[in-house]
Design goal:
The chain is an alpha/beta fold. It has one domain (about 35-235). About 50% of the residues lie in helices and about 10% in strands. The chain is built from nine helices and five strands. The protein has helices at about 10-30, 50-70, 90-100, 115-130, 145-150, 165-175, 185-190, 195-205, 220-235, and strands at about 40-45, 80-85, 105-110, 135-145, 220. A five-stranded mixed β-sheet has the order 2-1-3-4-5, sandwiched between helices. Helix 2 (about 50-70) packs parallel to helix 9 and helix 8 runs antiparallel to helix 9 (about 220-235).
Length: about 240
Protein backbone atom coordinates (compact mmCIF):
# COMPACT_ATOMS: atom_id res chain seq x y z
CA UNK A 1 0.00 0.00 0.00
CA UNK A 2 1.35 3.42 -0.94
CA UNK A 3 2.34 5.67 1.95
CA UNK A 4 2.36 8.80 -0.17
CA UNK A 5 0.45 11.68 1.41
CA UNK A 6 -3.02 12.21 -0.02
CA UNK A 7 -3.51 15.01 -2.48
CA UNK A 8 -5.42 17.95 -1.12
CA UNK A 9 -8.41 17.15 -3.33
CA UNK A 10 -8.52 13.50 -2.23
CA UNK A 11 -8.34 14.49 1.44
CA UNK A 12 -11.25 16.90 0.96
CA UNK A 13 -13.35 14.07 -0.52
CA UNK A 14 -12.58 11.78 2.42
CA UNK A 15 -13.29 14.54 4.95
CA UNK A 16 -16.63 15.27 3.28
CA UNK A 17 -17.60 11.60 3.33
CA UNK A 18 -16.78 11.37 7.02
CA UNK A 19 -18.73 14.55 7.71
CA UNK A 20 -21.80 13.22 5.87
CA UNK A 21 -21.55 9.88 7.67
CA UNK A 22 -21.39 11.61 11.07
CA UNK A 23 -24.25 13.95 10.16
CA UNK A 24 -26.38 11.01 9.06
CA UNK A 25 -25.71 9.24 12.37
CA UNK A 26 -26.64 12.35 14.36
CA UNK A 27 -29.77 12.92 12.25
CA UNK A 28 -30.87 9.32 12.73
CA UNK A 29 -30.53 9.70 16.50
CA UNK A 30 -32.31 13.06 16.53
CA UNK A 31 -35.24 11.60 14.63
CA UNK A 32 -35.98 9.28 17.56
CA UNK A 33 -38.17 10.78 20.28
CA UNK A 34 -37.02 10.42 23.84
CA UNK A 35 -37.31 6.94 25.29
CA UNK A 36 -40.64 6.21 26.97
CA UNK A 37 -40.75 7.22 30.64
CA UNK A 38 -40.25 4.20 32.88
CA UNK A 39 -43.66 2.51 32.72
CA UNK A 40 -45.27 -0.50 34.41
CA UNK A 41 -48.41 -2.08 32.91
CA UNK A 42 -50.45 -4.26 35.26
CA UNK A 43 -52.92 -6.50 33.43
CA UNK A 44 -55.92 -8.34 34.78
CA UNK A 45 -55.29 -11.18 32.34
CA UNK A 46 -52.18 -13.33 32.44
CA UNK A 47 -52.18 -14.23 28.73
CA UNK A 48 -54.29 -12.21 26.29
CA UNK A 49 -53.41 -8.65 27.30
CA UNK A 50 -49.75 -9.29 28.25
CA UNK A 51 -49.11 -11.17 24.98
CA UNK A 52 -50.65 -8.37 22.92
CA UNK A 53 -48.87 -5.54 24.73
CA UNK A 54 -45.54 -7.37 24.81
CA UNK A 55 -45.51 -7.41 21.02
CA UNK A 56 -45.87 -3.64 20.95
CA UNK A 57 -43.14 -3.22 23.56
CA UNK A 58 -40.87 -5.51 21.51
CA UNK A 59 -41.35 -3.15 18.56
CA UNK A 60 -40.23 -0.23 20.73
CA UNK A 61 -37.19 -2.20 21.91
CA UNK A 62 -36.27 -3.07 18.32
CA UNK A 63 -36.53 0.54 17.22
CA UNK A 64 -34.29 1.83 20.00
CA UNK A 65 -31.87 -1.12 20.09
CA UNK A 66 -29.03 0.56 18.20
CA UNK A 67 -29.58 3.86 20.00
CA UNK A 68 -29.46 2.03 23.34
CA UNK A 69 -26.26 0.20 22.42
CA UNK A 70 -24.55 3.41 21.30
CA UNK A 71 -25.56 5.16 24.52
CA UNK A 72 -25.13 2.15 26.83
CA UNK A 73 -28.78 2.18 27.87
CA UNK A 74 -30.70 -0.92 28.96
CA UNK A 75 -34.17 -1.21 27.45
CA UNK A 76 -35.24 -4.19 29.55
CA UNK A 77 -37.11 -2.21 32.17
CA UNK A 78 -38.30 0.83 30.18
CA UNK A 79 -41.79 -0.66 29.74
CA UNK A 80 -42.62 -3.60 32.01
CA UNK A 81 -45.74 -5.77 31.76
CA UNK A 82 -47.19 -8.01 34.44
CA UNK A 83 -50.33 -10.15 34.39
CA UNK A 84 -51.65 -10.52 37.93
CA UNK A 85 -55.14 -12.12 37.69
CA UNK A 86 -56.77 -9.21 39.52
CA UNK A 87 -59.22 -6.58 38.32
CA UNK A 88 -60.40 -3.06 39.04
CA UNK A 89 -59.83 -1.88 42.59
CA UNK A 90 -57.92 -5.03 43.52
CA UNK A 91 -55.59 -4.50 40.55
CA UNK A 92 -54.93 -0.92 41.64
CA UNK A 93 -54.17 -1.98 45.21
CA UNK A 94 -51.78 -4.62 43.91
CA UNK A 95 -50.06 -2.07 41.66
CA UNK A 96 -49.56 0.38 44.52
CA UNK A 97 -47.77 -2.32 46.52
CA UNK A 98 -45.63 -3.62 43.65
CA UNK A 99 -44.76 -0.59 41.53
CA UNK A 100 -40.96 -0.25 41.21
CA UNK A 101 -39.47 2.89 42.74
CA UNK A 102 -38.21 4.31 39.42
CA UNK A 103 -41.54 4.00 37.58
CA UNK A 104 -43.16 7.20 36.30
CA UNK A 105 -46.30 5.78 34.68
CA UNK A 106 -48.58 2.96 35.78
CA UNK A 107 -51.30 1.59 33.50
CA UNK A 108 -54.06 -0.73 34.69
CA UNK A 109 -55.62 -2.98 32.03
CA UNK A 110 -58.82 -4.74 33.05
CA UNK A 111 -62.31 -5.76 31.89
CA UNK A 112 -65.77 -5.15 33.29
CA UNK A 113 -66.66 -8.86 33.26
CA UNK A 114 -68.97 -9.74 36.16
CA UNK A 115 -67.64 -7.26 38.68
CA UNK A 116 -70.18 -5.03 40.47
CA UNK A 117 -70.68 -1.65 38.75
CA UNK A 118 -69.58 0.29 41.84
CA UNK A 119 -66.19 -1.45 41.87
CA UNK A 120 -65.73 -0.95 38.14
CA UNK A 121 -66.66 2.73 38.41
CA UNK A 122 -64.54 3.62 41.41
CA UNK A 123 -61.21 2.36 40.03
CA UNK A 124 -60.55 5.28 37.61
CA UNK A 125 -61.42 7.73 40.41
CA UNK A 126 -59.01 6.00 42.78
CA UNK A 127 -56.30 5.99 40.10
CA UNK A 128 -56.80 9.74 39.56
CA UNK A 129 -56.52 10.30 43.32
CA UNK A 130 -53.21 8.40 43.38
CA UNK A 131 -51.94 10.53 40.48
CA UNK A 132 -52.72 13.73 42.39
CA UNK A 133 -50.26 12.63 45.06
CA UNK A 134 -47.62 13.50 42.48
CA UNK A 135 -45.28 10.50 42.64
CA UNK A 136 -46.64 8.24 39.89
CA UNK A 137 -49.14 8.82 37.10
CA UNK A 138 -51.86 6.14 37.25
CA UNK A 139 -54.02 5.53 34.17
CA UNK A 140 -56.78 3.01 33.50
CA UNK A 141 -57.31 1.15 30.23
CA UNK A 142 -60.60 -0.59 30.99
CA UNK A 143 -62.91 -2.41 28.60
CA UNK A 144 -66.64 -2.80 28.97
CA UNK A 145 -67.27 -5.67 28.35
CA UNK A 146 -63.89 -7.23 27.48
CA UNK A 147 -60.57 -6.82 25.63
CA UNK A 148 -62.03 -8.55 22.57
CA UNK A 149 -64.03 -5.37 21.92
CA UNK A 150 -60.72 -3.59 21.28
CA UNK A 151 -59.63 -6.32 18.88
CA UNK A 152 -63.01 -6.31 17.11
CA UNK A 153 -62.78 -2.55 16.53
CA UNK A 154 -59.85 -3.23 14.21
CA UNK A 155 -62.42 -4.59 11.76
CA UNK A 156 -65.74 -2.87 12.41
CA UNK A 157 -67.78 -0.41 14.43
CA UNK A 158 -69.90 -1.78 17.23
CA UNK A 159 -72.51 0.14 19.21
CA UNK A 160 -74.58 -2.71 20.69
CA UNK A 161 -73.76 -4.16 24.09
CA UNK A 162 -73.27 -7.92 23.66
CA UNK A 163 -71.97 -10.81 25.74
CA UNK A 164 -68.31 -11.77 26.06
CA UNK A 165 -69.00 -14.95 24.10
CA UNK A 166 -70.46 -12.96 21.21
CA UNK A 167 -67.42 -10.66 21.13
CA UNK A 168 -65.18 -13.66 20.51
CA UNK A 169 -67.63 -15.10 18.00
CA UNK A 170 -67.77 -11.84 16.04
CA UNK A 171 -63.99 -11.41 16.23
CA UNK A 172 -63.43 -14.87 14.77
CA UNK A 173 -65.56 -13.93 11.75
CA UNK A 174 -62.68 -11.60 10.82
CA UNK A 175 -59.81 -13.37 12.58
CA UNK A 176 -60.56 -17.13 12.65
CA UNK A 177 -57.29 -18.11 14.36
CA UNK A 178 -57.91 -15.94 17.42
CA UNK A 179 -57.76 -17.53 20.87
CA UNK A 180 -57.26 -15.93 24.27
CA UNK A 181 -53.80 -17.55 24.34
CA UNK A 182 -52.70 -16.18 20.94
CA UNK A 183 -49.23 -14.66 21.08
CA UNK A 184 -49.31 -12.78 17.76
CA UNK A 185 -52.50 -10.70 17.97
CA UNK A 186 -50.69 -7.37 17.53
CA UNK A 187 -48.77 -8.72 14.55
CA UNK A 188 -51.99 -9.90 12.94
CA UNK A 189 -53.86 -6.64 13.60
CA UNK A 190 -51.23 -3.90 13.55
CA UNK A 191 -52.02 -2.61 10.03
CA UNK A 192 -55.54 -1.86 11.31
CA UNK A 193 -54.50 -0.30 14.63
CA UNK A 194 -55.14 3.30 13.59
CA UNK A 195 -58.62 2.32 12.38
CA UNK A 196 -59.29 0.72 15.77
CA UNK A 197 -58.16 3.88 17.57
CA UNK A 198 -60.51 6.02 15.50
CA UNK A 199 -63.44 3.67 16.12
CA UNK A 200 -62.70 3.45 19.85
CA UNK A 201 -62.57 7.25 20.17
CA UNK A 202 -65.80 7.61 18.22
CA UNK A 203 -67.44 5.01 20.44
CA UNK A 204 -66.27 6.69 23.65
CA UNK A 205 -67.49 10.08 22.44
CA UNK A 206 -70.93 8.64 21.67
CA UNK A 207 -71.67 8.48 25.42
CA UNK A 208 -72.68 11.42 27.58
CA UNK A 209 -69.66 12.59 29.64
CA UNK A 210 -71.50 12.14 32.95
CA UNK A 211 -72.11 8.43 32.36
CA UNK A 212 -70.04 6.08 34.48
CA UNK A 213 -67.70 3.44 32.98
CA UNK A 214 -70.21 0.69 33.76
CA UNK A 215 -72.86 2.64 31.81
CA UNK A 216 -70.59 3.01 28.80
CA UNK A 217 -71.17 -0.28 27.05
CA UNK A 218 -69.70 -1.17 24.71
CA UNK A 219 -66.61 0.95 25.31
CA UNK A 220 -62.85 0.50 25.71
CA UNK A 221 -60.06 2.80 26.86
CA UNK A 222 -57.31 0.45 25.69
CA UNK A 223 -56.82 2.78 22.73
CA UNK A 224 -55.28 5.36 25.08
CA UNK A 225 -52.58 2.96 26.23
CA UNK A 226 -51.93 1.85 22.64
CA UNK A 227 -51.66 5.49 21.52
CA UNK A 228 -49.13 6.11 24.30
CA UNK A 229 -46.98 3.15 23.19
CA UNK A 230 -47.25 3.90 19.46
CA UNK A 231 -45.70 7.32 20.06
CA UNK A 232 -42.40 5.46 20.36
CA UNK A 233 -42.88 3.37 17.21
CA UNK A 234 -44.52 5.52 14.55
CA UNK A 235 -42.87 8.94 14.96
Amino acid sequence: MSKKPLKHGDQKVIDERLRLKAAKKIRRTEELPLLPPITKIFCEGTKTEPHYLKEIVNSITERYKKYAMENRISLDDVVQIEGVARSGKSLLEYAKKHVPTDVVNVWLVYDKDDFPPEQFNVTPKMAAAETKKGKVNYSTAWSNECIELWFLLHFQDLYSNISRELYIEKLREHYPAYTKSSTDVYTQLKTKTNDAIKRAKKLYESFEPEKTPSEKAPCTMVYKLVEFLLEYIEH
